[in-house]
Amino acid sequence: MGKHILFATAVLSLSCGLEGGEIVHPQVPVWQVPELMASGFRFTEGPAWCEDGYLLFSDLYDNVIYRWTENDGVMTFLSPSENSNGIFYDGTRFWVCRHTTRDVAVLNKDGLITSIVGSYDGRKLNSPNDITVSKHGIAYFTDPDYGVKQEDRELDIEGLYYVVNGSDAAVLADDSMTKPNGVALSPEHSKLYVCESSSNTIHVFDLTSEGMPVNKRTLCKISGNGEVDGIACHKSGCLFIAFSAGGVVVISAEGERKGHITFSANDRIRNLCFGEDDGNTLFIAASLYTGYA
Length: 293
Prior knowledge:
Elements: E1 4-11, E2 17-19, E3 22-24, E4 35-41, E5 44-50, E6 54-59, E7 64-69, E8 73-78, E9 84-89, E10 94-98, E11 103-107, E12 113-117, E13 119-120, E14 123-124, E15 131-133, E16 139-143, E17 159-163, E18 171-174, E19 180-185, E20 191-196, E21 201-207, E22 213-221, E23 231-233, E24 239-242, E25 248-251, E26 257-261, E27 267-275, E28 281-289
Antiparallel strand pairs: 1-4, 1-28, 2-3, 5-6, 6-7, 7-8, 9-10, 10-11, 11-12, 13-14, 15-16, 16-17, 17-18, 19-20, 20-21, 21-22, 23-24, 24-25, 25-26, 27-28
C-alpha cells in the first residue's frame, strides 16, 4: 500500500452558451485546467458546496471536516468527525456519512451534528460511504464494507438505502451490488446514479413519485486504469465520475463517454461536487500516490 498525501483541486467554469436569453448546454462540456486549492491532507473525501460561499470536505484518516473559502482558505469545521466520508448539502444542512459510528448524521452550519440512522432491520450498518438528497428531502446513501472490520459486520449485504424525509429508518433499495460507492441525482431528480466500484459500473434507477428507486439498469461501464468512486451530475445532465488513477471521466446522461479531465500519473481522484453561484465549478478531492510503502 502506497502512502497517500491528500489535497483538493478545482476545475473552473464549464462553458454554457446563451441563446435567446436561455442557457444552452453544450453536448460536450468544456473545462479549464484543474487548479490546486489546498494540500497536506491525508485522505480527502466528500466535498459539499454551501450556498453561503464555502466548501466542506472530509479528511477521512485525520478525522476532521474542513471548511474552505476563497478568502480564508482551509479551517477546521468539525473535529473529531467520526471519520466522515461523503457529505451533501441539502440547502439547509449537511448530511454526513460516518465510518466510526457507522451511521448517517446531519450537521448544521454551527457545527452541531446529530445521528439520523445507523442500522437496518435491527443490525448496524457497515460504513456509510456517500450520500445525496432529493428536492423532496429523501436521502439516498451507499453502505459498502470499506470502513468496517469483517468480524464487526452485522449485515451480510452492501446496500443502497434511502431515508424518507422526517424518518429515522433506512429503507433498503438494492442489495445486489458489491462495493456500491458514489451516488448522484439527475438535474430533475427523476433518476438516481450509483457507482459500483468492484465492476467499474455506473447504474441508474428511476425514482417513483414517492422517491423509491426502481428499474435498475446498467448505464455504462468505465474502462481504463482506474476505479470508479464518487460521481457528480452537472446541470446539463452530464455525469462527472471520479476514476482514481484515471482522473475524471465525463459521460452523457445516456452513458456515452464525452471527455476526460487529466491529472498527473500519481493523482488518485476520490470524489467531487459542483458549486459556486452558477454551479459550474467542479471541486475535486484527490490523493497523491507517492509510490513508497
